[in-house]
Amino acid sequence: MMTLKGSKIYLRALEPEDLEFVYAVENNEAIWEVSNTQTPYSRFLIRQYLENAHQDIYEAKQLRLGICKNNSADAIGLIDLFDFDPKNKRTGVGIIIQDENDRHSGYGKEALGLVIDYAFNQLQLHQLYANISTENSASLSLFTTFGFEKIGVKKDWNFTRNRFHDEALFQLIKK
Question: Which pTM value belongs to this model?
Answer without folding.
Answer: 0.89
